[in-house]
Each structure stands twice: as structure tokens, then as C-alpha cells.
Amino acid sequence: MSFIINRKKNTAHEMGKKLDMNNIPKHVAIIMDGNGRWAKKRGFIRTLGHRAGMEAVKRVVRASCEIGIKYLTLYAFSTENWKRPAEEVNGLMDLLIEYLGREINELNENDVKLNFIGDLSKIPEKCKIKIKESEEITKNNKGLTLNIALNYGGRNEIVNAVKKIGKSLLDGKIKLNDIDEQIIADNLYTAGQPDPDLIIRPSGELRISNFMLWQSAYSELWFSDILWPDFDKNHLLEAIIDYQKRNRRFGGI
Ligand code: IPE
Ligand code: IPE
Ligand code: MG
């Protein structure tokens, strides 16, 4: 399916739908869910669902570059996902290594900057090596910042921030009254990045599942029954077109 961008009018068309290129969300975050159900429907093992989910990642990253999204956060593995069988967890880690190995050149050519968010201390060493390597290769890129949330939990992120702030307080670097929303934001994994404008959750679940608890204060939410491995550029555009119709008030009138 092709997608035509009209640079003069600053619009883009896809299947008769019009995207306003002047109102592209800066930061889109996606809870990539439904891989297991996608596999089950086909009688496949769950890992094959995750593999198909990796293809959706490629499509969505490409489309995000194309329409000029500045930050894309993909929730790949939560702090609660360790509850799954070791075989599935290992399969997910191996798939990440495979994705980085295969995609790093294209990502780099497309000016994508990779940034992992989450508690990486618990991630297998072979995975950490690949993560550091891919962040290093892409560190000077200026296009899309691709945050991959790995062993990420919104509560864990806040606990981590509180510890860092507590240490600055104990070390006398800050005073109690210096603690404000900005200091908290500056100590999250997403320090320096804008909050997500749009959070997308496919798979029919209507929950946040410990994702971006602080940053989502005023995010627009978009839910869909589509399973993540079926997610493509058109779904992303549909979500953004819906987002563009919303009236964001941030508590104002
Ligand atoms: C992918 O979907 C999300 C990850 C944790 C990798 P799931 O594996 O949660 O798929 P469902 O929810 O069982 O369908
Ligand atoms: C959320 O999906 C986590 C990721 C997409 C990585 P889950 O499948 O783990 O969420 P729940 O258990 O349905 O809330
Ligand atoms: Mg799930």
C-alpha cells in the first residue's frame, strides 16, 4: 500500500485518509501486545508470534521515519514479563539480538538513534553487548530516536528516580525544596525527551500495564483490537489521524 506525501501542502494521503503533516505527534509510544494470541490463532508456538511482531516493528519504524516522528517508544519487555516461561523470555532476548544484528545498518542509514530504556542490569550479557554496540553506532544520529523499553516498568522507573534524587539530597547537592516535577522528569529513563503525545495499544486490552506512568499524564490514548503482528503503516496512520482530531486541553478550556 503506498502512501503519498505532498510536501507543498504538507499533507499525506493514504487510502483516502488525510494526515496533517503540521501536526505529527512528536512522541508516539506503543505497547506492542498480542503476539501470543496471533500465534495461537494459527496453531504456532508463541515465539513465532514474537517473530512476526518483529516484522511489525520494522514496518512501524520505517513509517515513523517517513512521516517525521521524532521519538518512538516501543514497549518490548516489561518488569513483569519475567513471570513467563524461561524459554519464551530467552526467545525474546534472542530475537532482540537478531533484530539489532539485522537492522542496525538500515536504522543507521535512516538516521535513527537507538536508545534503550529500562533496568538493563538484569538483561543477559550477550544482549547487553549488542545493545551497547547499537547505541554506540547510532549515537550521533539526528532523525528518529527509537526508545526500546526493555525490562521497563513505570513504577521501577519512578523508584529508580527517587533513589537518584535521594542520593543528591544526602550528598547535599540539592535541597528538599528543590525537588519538583522537572527534577523527577530529569531522573527518568526518558530524561530530556518530550512526553508521549500518543500511546497506542493494540490487542484489545484496555490498560496501561505499567507503561510510562509519569510521562503519560496528558497523553492521548488509542486502543485497537488488531494484534501487534498484524499492525502496519495504515494502523499507525489511522491512530495519528484520530489523534489529530482530538482537542488537547491540558486542564485548560
Ligand atoms: C507481546 O505480546 C508482548 C510482549 C510481552 C513481548 P504477548 O506475548 O503479551 O501476546 P499476548 O498478549 O499473549 O497475545
Ligand atoms: C505489556 O504487555 C508489556 C509489553 C508489551 C512489553 P503484557 O502482555 O505483558 O501485558 P498484560 O499482562 O496483558 O497487562
Ligand atoms: Mg500480552
TrEMBL record:
Superkingdom, taxonomy of origin: Bacteria
Annotated family: Belongs to the UPP synthase family.
Protein name: Isoprenyl transferase
Record keyword Metal-binding present: yes
Lineage, opening ranks: Bacteria, Bacillati, Bacillota, Clostridia, Thermoanaerobacterales
CDD domains referenced in this protein's UniProt entry, alphabetically: Cis_IPPS (cd00475)
PROSITE patterns per UniProt: UPP_SYNTHASE
Entry EC no(s): 2.5.1.-
Annotated function: Catalyzes the condensation of isopentenyl diphosphate (IPP) with allylic pyrophosphates generating different type of terpenoids.
Gene Ontology biological process terms, A to Z: polyprenol biosynthetic process
Record: residues binding substrate: 34-38, 46, 50, 78-80, 82, 84, 201, 207-209
InterPro entries: UPP_synth-like, UPP_synth-like_CS, UPP_synth-like_sf
